[in-house]
Amino acid sequence: MAPPEKAFPVSWDQFHRDCRALTWRLNEVGPFQAIIAITRGGLVPAAIVARELGIRVIDTVCIASYDHTRQGDLKALKGVSADVAKLGGGTGKGLLIVDDLVDTGKTGRLVRSMMPDAHFAAVYAKPQGKPLVDTFITEVSQDTWIHFPWDTALSFQPPIRDGAG
Ligand SMILES: O=P(O)(O)OC[C@H]1O[C@H](OP(=O)(O)OP(=O)(O)O)[C@H](O)[C@@H]1O
Ligand SMILES: Nc1nc2[nH]cnc2c(=O)[nH]1
Ligand SMILES: [Mg+2]
Q: Which residues take part in binding xanthine (predicted)?
């Protein structure tokens, strides 16, 4: 993957609004029996979607792949819990998978192989990942790096007259 050129910083306030916008769409295609958050990026959106849809059964699939901006090979550290897999009839039927974004689509492909009939939602999508996701809110270009609120903080900017950076 070429190094990302553009930055797309997302504040907590913006992310919360985008997760509620995602939920408006998901409310049209539900109801869902349970949510599966793809950790760690899917944890915050899953919490917001669960509250808005009134879903109380929440599972995780733990996948590691990126070391900051470089994606290594995917490692599934934890699969779907047996109870939730049973709820989905073993193929994910009526289950909602939530992640923060799809980039190359590799994570989406792995998760879909686990639960082919589940509904896969992400807040943001890049062109390469779009074909993997059923519902998303905002598309960003492939060479954009999204900075999530849990990865960032506001920082002091020195005054311009003192030769700001
Ligand atoms: O479509 P892909 O190219 O697979 O990229 C998308 C995935 O990458 C990030 O997770 P990451 O693997 O960095 O782990 P994290 O969620 O714990 O940060 C992001 O949260 C998605 O899950
Ligand atoms: N924070 C962040 N993680 C990613 N993992 C894959 N793509 C991205 C991205 O654009 N931003
Ligand atoms: Mg992730």
A: 103, 146
